[in-house]
Amino acid sequence: MEFGFSEEQKMMRQMVRSFAEKAVKPRAAEMDETDEFPKEIFKQAGDLGLLAVNFPEEYGGAGADSVSSVLASIELGRVSATVANICSSIKHHLFCMYHYGTKEQKETYMPAMARGEIIGSFALTESGAGSDATGIKTQARLDEDSYVLNGSKTFITLGPLADFTIVFAVTDASKKSKGISAFIVEKGTPGFRVGKKEKKMGQRGNPVSELLFTDCRIPKSNMLGAEGQGIKIALHSLDSGRIEVAGLAIGLIQAALEDSVAYAESRVQFGQKISQFQLIQAFIAQMAADLDAASLLTYRAAYLKDSGKPFTRESSIAKWFATEAAMKHTTNAIQIHGGYGYCKDYAVERYFRDAKLTQIYEGTNQIQQIVIAREVLKGGLQWS
Ligand SMILES: Cc1cc2nc3c(=O)[nH]c(=O)nc-3n(C[C@H](O)[C@H](O)[C@H](O)COP(=O)(O)OP(=O)(O)OC[C@H]3O[C@@H](n4cnc5c(N)ncnc54)[C@H](O)[C@@H]3O)c2cc1C
């Protein structure tokens, strides 16, 4: 077993650290305050290959591996969960397109998406179907050479900005989960419109909205993957997306730790630095240990993905562990900062709000436990 990054992986981490520190960190609080999408940063991220780190150059990607992609998510998450999530969301859409798109679909969407020239979205969740994705009601009815979509989606990341969306809809209700298919619907298609934009607690600046479909007619050729493959596409891409969410959460733990150490070393109470109090040291020690544990679990999941091995169980473990740790330690970072940590002058207040979302999206942490238990019960105790 080797512990260490390749030269390419180290270079990726260094490059993203530099971009994050210079271009993203100075804007992070403003993005949170204004809730405005960071257009310039998005463009720069596209130029640097950060929207498509682990996709082939042939389709506009940086041609790096998933471990490098996680390192990029950690570095971005350390300064701005918003920017980290925007980049991870684009990678999620690219993943669907790369694994299930036709050659023509890949050529049409992937290079432009990788460069940040067009934006996608992934529309699975509905008001009545969140954790139970197979319960979606949006329908796609075949009518000669078109599909006609009716229904609505909720909480769709980048929904208000997206040039196209990957929509999951029922094509044959009698086949239950095998009767759901995926479609590409472009902005401007009659019958497709953006609904209510949500006012979020955290990860602000990355817009989330409803998407509404009323007799929305799309060509048959806009199906992504085969008919009935929708849930497979969704679950496969979520397995991959969970590794990215874990990376973002690790970035938040690292930021919480760095800020906590700096504050504890500067704040004096009872005539000494609070870093000298053992109860404060306990917070720091727990942060450091969980940072390591979350990182190792997440690198393992990314490594398995790069090796072409199954990684469902490992990505769920990484996502669950890292995001629970992020919530715990961003909370404790506020505790270390005392009353100042509860106010916006200190970034830990933002980390705390940003961390909460990581326990919910890409499958709640209750759903991660269901996935892990299911994999273990079918004999997946070992990884290799
Ligand atoms: C900011 C944001 C961005 C999002 N982006 C997207 C996106 O881009 N695309 C998209 O399709 N979706 C997106 N989502 C939706 C997200 O994936 C869902 O919110 C999530 O899957 C949970 O669904 P729900 O909110 O309907 O909660 P529910 O499914 O209603 O869950 C409510 C509670 O019940 C628990 N629960 C549910 N089932 C079980 C069970 N079997 N056992 C134990 N507990 C259970 C859940 O863990 C949760 O605690 C986003 C959500 C948010 C908030």
Automatic annotation (TrEMBL):
<dbReference type="InterPro" id="IPR009100">
    <property type="entry name" value="AcylCoA_DH/oxidase_NM_dom_sf"/>
</dbReference>
<keyword id="KW-0274">FAD</keyword>
<dbReference type="Pfam" id="PF02770">
    <property type="entry name" value="Acyl-CoA_dh_M"/>
</dbReference>
<feature type="domain" description="Acyl-CoA oxidase/dehydrogenase middle">
    <location>
        <begin position="121"/>
        <end position="216"/>
    </location>
</feature>
<feature type="domain" description="Acyl-CoA dehydrogenase/oxidase N-terminal">
    <location>
        <begin position="6"/>
        <end position="117"/>
    </location>
</feature>
<feature type="domain" description="Acyl-CoA dehydrogenase/oxidase C-terminal">
    <location>
        <begin position="228"/>
        <end position="376"/>
    </location>
</feature>
<dbReference type="Pfam" id="PF02771">
    <property type="entry name" value="Acyl-CoA_dh_N"/>
</dbReference>
<keyword id="KW-0560">Oxidoreductase</keyword>
<dbReference type="InterPro" id="IPR037069">
    <property type="entry name" value="AcylCoA_DH/ox_N_sf"/>
</dbReference>
<dbReference type="Pfam" id="PF00441">
    <property type="entry name" value="Acyl-CoA_dh_1"/>
</dbReference>
<dbReference type="InterPro" id="IPR006089">
    <property type="entry name" value="Acyl-CoA_DH_CS"/>
</dbReference>
<dbReference type="InterPro" id="IPR036250">
    <property type="entry name" value="AcylCo_DH-like_C"/>
</dbReference>
<dbReference type="InterPro" id="IPR006091">
    <property type="entry name" value="Acyl-CoA_Oxase/DH_mid-dom"/>
</dbReference>
<dbReference type="InterPro" id="IPR009075">
    <property type="entry name" value="AcylCo_DH/oxidase_C"/>
</dbReference>
<dbReference type="InterPro" id="IPR013786">
    <property type="entry name" value="AcylCoA_DH/ox_N"/>
</dbReference>
<protein>
    <submittedName>
        <fullName>Acyl-CoA dehydrogenase family protein</fullName>
    </submittedName>
</protein>
<keyword id="KW-0285">Flavoprotein</keyword>
<dbReference type="InterPro" id="IPR046373">
    <property type="entry name" value="Acyl-CoA_Oxase/DH_mid-dom_sf"/>
</dbReference>
<comment type="similarity">
    <text>Belongs to the acyl-CoA dehydrogenase family.</text>
</comment>
